[in-house]
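Researcher: Here's the sequence for the chain we discussed earlier.
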Amino acid sequence: IAVTGSDDRLWKMWSLPDGDIIMTGEGHTDWLSGCCFHPSGTRLVTSSGDTSVRIWDLSEGGCVLTFDGHAQAVWDCSWHSCGDFVASASMDSTSKIWDVNSERCRYTMRGHKDSVNSIEFLPFSNTVLTSSADKTLSLWDARTGLCVYTFYGHLHSLNHATFS
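Model: Thanks. This is the structure I predict for it:
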């Protein structure tokens, strides 16, 4: 199964390799920039130009939770491996850790000087990795929302970063 997010404001779930559309989700009011499966595969998180992050229940096929709080477009989203937290990266130069159980923002991570373009949890840890248009890569502690280390060295915007 693959999931795509599009400028048409929809996400679609596809069966592989035949390419049949299994499910379509609508509710965002602007383009989708990111989507990520819950570790159990039962939910999906999406990020959008409408400044929101949405959680979708795949058995119901609908949005069950919307996180609002970013001031500008949200570029990326990621699930923590425990499935209780979501991270988001925004054009507003912040990242957020969202607590799915309490349905609130746990931390707003500030430190980048420009758009935060990608975000990812290190599997089975509390470490978050962000990349930014400010040409830096940062490691964060998701338990405190504090920056642990910032890496410098690129001459242009960082569009994506990932762990091995």
